[in-house]
Amino acid sequence: MSPIVLYIHGFNSSPKSFKAQLLDARIASDGEGLEFRCPALPHLPGEAIGLLEETLEGKSKNEAILVGSSLGGFYATHLTERHGYRSILINPAINPHVGLEAYLGLQRNLYTHEEYTFTREHLNQLEQLYIEQPERHENYLLMHTMGDELLDWRIAAKKYHKSQRLIIQGSDHGFAEFKDYLDVVMNFIQQDN
Fold first, then answer.
1. pLDDT of 134-192, one tens digit each?
2. Residue of 113, 116, 115, 129 whose CA lies nearest to 71
3. Which of 71, 94, 112, 178 is disulfide-compatible with 11, CB 3.0–4.6 A?
């Protein structure tokens, strides 16, 4: 069975995000023996984690690598601490149960245009998934842009201070230069394959 690379998209994003598309194309061309997956996540965090767990069902910690962007990085941390998968965290949300409080109310997915109401129940479910301090330090590669306008790179750098880290000058939350760092991503993915 092929190892999978599970891309976990962020808040109000989808499998059509440009980073997911770039990584999918790179794995198709250079990721021999790897299978790319990027499920469309439900907006409720409990349901999102349920779908990710289902996608990973039957995969040992050596048969899956997670790539989580923004809120997807928060989910990846939860799954790594719970199951031991290796994860690449791209501009990860650290405490979305606090940071997303400003988004309470009507939301619209950037790609699907689906509308839903973001409620305190969403925040409560995120808080239940929160990992105070990761312990599987060797399982992470943190990639954070200093120019991220939504998330402070210093908070993530402190939380993952014992993990491999790549802090990138400039850029933005969407990590517009992601394509330039695909070699780094692939090297981490293929370490044990």
1. 999 999 999 999 999 999 999 999 999 999 999 999 998 999 999 999 999 999 999 86
2. 129
3. 71
Which residue in this structure is represented by tokens 């993530």? 156
Specify the DSSP element, H or E, that contains 55.
helix 45-56
Full DSSP string of 53-121: HHHHTT--TTSEEEEEETHHHHHHHHHHHHH--EEEEES--S-HHHHGGGG-EEEE-TTT--EEEE-HH
Q: In the numeric block, which tokens belong to residue 164?
A: 């491999």
Q: For the domain bounded by 4-189, which CATH number is listed? A: 3.40.50.1820
Q: Which residues lie below 8 Å from residue 187, measured CB to CB, with a gap of 6+? A: none
Domain ranges for the chain, please list them.
4-189
